[in-house]
Amino acid sequence: MNYSHRAYLNTLEILAWQQRNPRAADSTPACPRLPDWASLQSRVAACTACGLHSSRTQTVFGTGSRTASLMVIGEAPGFHEDQQGEPFVGRAGQLLTAMLKSIGFERSQVYIANILKCRPPNNRDPQPEEVAQCTPFLDQQIILIQPDVILAVGRIASHYLLKTRSSLESLRGKVHSYSDRQIPLIVTYHPAYLLRNPIDKKKAYVDLRFARTLLQPSGASTNGTIPLSAQQTLSRTQT
């Protein structure tokens, strides 16, 4: 509308039509905002979505580098984890630390989490409703970290992440993909299982080396054998 037209309408005391909210027609729905680490951790600590909150000492959020290339995901906290608020801190945690060192990673260089943030009573398997309520927290952690490779340790973590009921043995030795983001995922034994079945530690080392080959090769052995130092480190965690 030009100036003369507007003046003419004003003379006739006719109000010119105006869009009440010019931005409304051009606005587009905002993308859902991801929580930051602090708000996500606060939500986990305050969560009462399932019955596990009534028996926990504290939630077990996760630990390690938030820019990690390798993310390790287990099942659920145990007694020691529930007491200390950190995943994999008992004998199984000591073995996991040794396993990571055997392929050139310090524990602080990876991110470690579980599919559940609270300990199930008597360390029983997670129930489906507990997994359904808790795993959105894990999914958000994965989105925030954006790891290059996920290492799923144990049957329950592998089944959730891959949406399958196949046996652990059938899932090992393959590169799987996590969700529509297509993050490479490798399956191996849970450290607690390896403490009970140390004969399978060599198989687990093969799995870890497989995961390592998907990352930058620095710090990893590439000759196809288990280095003596790695064998000694893993052996010390058997008892």
From TrEMBL:
Source organism of this protein record: Aquicella siphonis
Q: One Pfam family of this protein, by short name? A: UDG
Query: Which family does this protein fall into?
Result: Belongs to the uracil-DNA glycosylase (UDG) superfamily. Type 4 (UDGa) family.
Stored CDD domains: UDG-F4_TTUDGA_SPO1dp_like (cd10030)
Report the EC code(s) recorded for this entry.
Answer: 3.2.2.27
Q: Which residues form the Uracil-DNA glycosylase-like domain?
A: 61-209
Q: What NCBIfam families does this protein map onto?
A: UDG_fam4 (TIGR00758)
Annotated protein name in UniProt: Type-4 uracil-DNA glycosylase
Against InterPro entries, the record matches this protein to: UDG_Type-4/5 (IPR051536), Ura-DNA_glyco_family4 (IPR005273), Uracil-DNA_glycosylase-like (IPR005122), Uracil-DNA_glycosylase-like_sf (IPR036895)
Catalytic reaction(s) noted? Hydrolyzes single-stranded DNA or mismatched double-stranded DNA and polynucleotides, releasing free uracil
Which top EC class is named for this enzyme in its record? hydrolase
For biological process, the GO terms are: DNA repair
Q: List the molecular function annotations (GO) for this entry.
A: 4 iron, 4 sulfur cluster binding; metal ion binding; uracil DNA N-glycosylase activity
Q: Which UniProt keywords apply?
A: 4Fe-4S, DNA damage, DNA repair, Hydrolase, Iron, Iron-sulfur, Metal-binding
